[in-house]
Design a protein that fits this description.
By secondary structure, the chain is of the alpha+beta class. It has one domain. Helices cover about 20% and strands about 25% of the residues. The longest helix has 18 residues, at about 10-25. The radius of gyration is 19 Å and the shape is globular. It starts with 7 loop residues before the first helix and ends in a 26-residue tail after the last helix.
């Protein structure tokens, strides 16, 4: 059973740190975080969860969730600029620490119309909350707000500098060398943005576990295709050749089951090889994003769009040897709903 009192900040901090190592270790063409993290999901962008964000509004009474899909939407042949009509998109919230969802938000999308817009329905624990169209902000009865559509990818990172300085691939690049390039500038994804009152997810000052899943219908049955809480857990800790099948299994596994299937052992082995603390494996697995409602600090609590996880974690990974990639976000995130910047 997860203990929120056990180094909640470390749980988020270290998981984001290993994201940095994931970029170089991921399959060819993978972007970052959980973009294209396993062979099967890499073929179906509309099932691929790229990032999960959760943060408190300034008044501390509401929470914003952002979940990204379709990495490189419109640029990669495997990613769409729309959501899959045969996919169930879910956001799961654990309010009591048992690693099982107490609140589940589900979205189902129809086929795109002539202009590429889609009708969709939003459900909470099986009850319909609202029906809407993509590309528009829609109020939810009771004080919520939702939108879904194509947006600028919120991630920002100098990938080439990482490859040159950290991975040593010989490209001549290093962090802050005057040739900084944000690899993500100009790339899009599809995203769901959901803002809800804290009373819907356990109340103010509640300690939550948050993750997202996608499911696809096969032979009349729904099967989980992807799951994600923290950035890059699957990409990093199941990256060894002997563990590649585990990437697929990890995406199909519920957090409550992950501790019993050897994933913590994988994490412990990788942490030891990187010179990290192997005991952190029991914090990183199971894969849920820890978040306290009403706490407006952002990272290390949950994850805001503006949080520069690269700068925050370079120092942790390198023991202070590296502190920045000198890249700021290129999106100029909006201060009002839906927060994400419009698509390029």
């Amino acid at each position: 059973m997860r203990e929120h009192s056990r180094a909640r900040a470390w749980a988020v901090s270290v998981s984001s740190a290993v994201f940095i190592l994931a970029v170089g270790a991921a399959p060819s063409g993978a972007f970052a975080a959980d973009h294209l993290d396993a062979p099967t999901i890499a073929k179906h962008g509309n099932r691929d969860i790229t990032d999960v964000f959760a943060w408190s509004t300034n008044n501390g009474n509401k929470t914003v969730f952002v979940i990204g899909y379709n990495p490189g939407a419109g640029a990669l042949p495997t990613s769409d600029t729309t959501f899959g009509p045969n996919v169930r998109y879910k956001l799961k919230v654990d309010t009591n620490g048992d690693l099982k969802p107490d609140v589940t938000y589900k979205l189902r999308f129809g086929a795109p119309n002539g202009s590429g817009r889609q009708h969709y329905s939003l459900y909470r624990n099986g009850a319909n909350l609202v029906d809407a169209m993509t590309g528009a902000n829609t109020s939810i009865p009771g004080g919520g707000m939702v939108t879904a559509g194509l947006f600028d990818d919120p991630f920002f990172f100098d990938l080439d500098a990482f490859k040159g300085q950290v991975l040593g691939n010989g490209n001549g690049r290093s962090f802050c060398d005057g040739n900084e390039v944000d690899f993500f500038q100009g790339l899009n994804l599809t995203a769901v943005v959901l803002r809800v009152p804290n009373s819907w997810i356990g109340g103010n000052n509640a300690n939550l576990g948050v993750w997202a899943t996608t499911e696809v219908e096969k032979g009349g049955h729904w099967s989980q295709a992807d799951q994600m809480g923290r950035p890059a857990i699957n990409t990093v800790f199941n990256n060894a050749d002997s563990h590649k099948q585990d990437k697929e299994l990890f995406n199909r596994t519920q957090p409550a089951q992950q501790g019993d299937l050897g994933f913590a052992t994988h994490a412990r082995q990788v942490l030891e090889s990187l010179g990290g603390d192997p005991n952190l494996a029991d914090v990183l697995i199971p894969d849920v994003l820890t978040y306290e409602t009403s706490n407006t600090n952002g990272f290390l609590n949950g994850r805001k769009l503006t949080d520069d996880v690269i700068d925050a974690e370079l120092g942790l990974v390198t023991g202070g040897g590296l502190t920045s990639d000198c890249i700021d976000n290129d999106s100029n995130f909006r201060t009002v709903f839906p927060y994400l910047q419009a698509a390029n």
